[in-house]
Amino acid sequence: KDKLSLSKILAIDKMTITDEPAKSNSDFPWYFLKKLMMVNVAARNMTCTSDCESDDESENAEDSDSSNTDHRPNPLDIITALFLCSDDFVQQEMARKMSTCQFSVPLLLPNCDTKQCTLMLWAMRDIVKKYRPQFCSESKSFIEERIVLSELPMISFVRLGECSLSKSEILNKLLSNSQQYHDTFVHYNMECGDSPRAISNGITEITWYLPCGNTNIDIFSKPVAVANLRGDIASFKTQYSFLCQTSAAVFVFFDQLDSECSLLTNQHHKAQIFLVGNGESKCCTSDALKEVENKLGLTKNNIIIRKKQKNNADFVKSFRKKVRDVVEHSEMKMTIEQMADIAHKLGILVDENSPECQTGKKNAEAITVEIQDILKYKEDQLRCQGEIWKELASLEKEEFRLRKLGSKNIEDYKSELKKHREELRKKQNSYDMSTAMTCFINAISTTPRSATGFGALSLLHT
């Protein structure tokens, strides 16, 4: 089937020019896309008209315990479905704009039909981040680079079995300072209550905390990637194994632990394991914890239990300190590009391995490999956009403003400007086609999707 394309979602029609809320569940994907393309940070806060709500009520009248909000689709299901139905261009555009809105983006995308997941390396190729670690604050220098090439420690959060603690809610508070709260991860009811049929089950989201260099604002002094696996790791062992091999630390949320706990003890992992339990849960017993602690070789520092007397703010504060210690002292760092090797070994697909992406990447590299000095490269390969282009732009402005007219006749002056403009255009047209432009035109002329690789040309902006 045809994938959703950029031309489709950017088309101007009745739906795009109105700002009405969704009238039915089928409207939610388009509502989200429209808001996302406008970089609206409230894109995931989907509203429904009273007609939609009354329809839901009539369909579920027998279920007296359900509220209207429960009848609306999980925003994460909508995002997962959109990524599965979109082509490479749309996936890159969605990932870039979701990152701009400070939303988490898919790292491992599940496919409920094939039961496989895909590492979304290519989808994140276009995301460029700018940050300043605190050790750079004196020189006031910023680091700007594509995020898939940034070598950062990754901290992962997973759930084992049922869990009375909301992992996504804790993560949002963990990454928000006291002055400004932001829902980086979708918090939809209680995470442990996710439907087993939800298409987003098994998705691993990723976001990045990037410091600005101000000790009064920064939560972490160094940049860090934060991953969140949705669903029970007992059902998504491949994703869990991937996180154990790519993360500096994995925080496992639980209510009940099996003393054998083979899922935790049999994993080949490089990450530190932290167990996070709720002290109010009757299933969180010290005996089971002690057995697992011994088998995994954990210390008391790796066990985090929320005490009954501790409120949310105090728990998040102590939890943040644990994460900060890992970030500060971890030597385990990896780029998303390097994660592709581990994905291959685990049988995880990599979106960048598709023929279209490989062809596009090859075309892009044929151009970017020649770039040493950006200014000199533009002068040699983009000659039509150099000084002549600037002079033409200046002439066009003068034709309308006539600021240098002086005592000259208006018509004569306009004729003089027009003649000068034609001479410049003639000189511009005299240039032969540059090697870079020839390569670019040949690539996009073969098949539209072969041009996907030109997202790599964002290198010119870094």
From TrEMBL:
<dbReference type="InterPro" id="IPR052986">
    <property type="entry name" value="VLIG_GTPase"/>
</dbReference>
<feature type="region of interest" description="Disordered">
    <location>
        <begin position="52"/>
        <end position="73"/>
    </location>
</feature>
<feature type="coiled-coil region">
    <location>
        <begin position="403"/>
        <end position="430"/>
    </location>
</feature>
<dbReference type="InterPro" id="IPR057365">
    <property type="entry name" value="URGCP"/>
</dbReference>
<keyword id="KW-0175">Coiled coil</keyword>
<feature type="compositionally biased region" description="Acidic residues">
    <location>
        <begin position="52"/>
        <end position="65"/>
    </location>
</feature>
<dbReference type="Pfam" id="PF25496">
    <property type="entry name" value="URGCP"/>
</dbReference>
<feature type="domain" description="Up-regulator of cell proliferation-like">
    <location>
        <begin position="74"/>
        <end position="368"/>
    </location>
</feature>
<protein>
    <recommendedName>
        <fullName>Up-regulator of cell proliferation-like domain-containing protein</fullName>
    </recommendedName>
</protein>
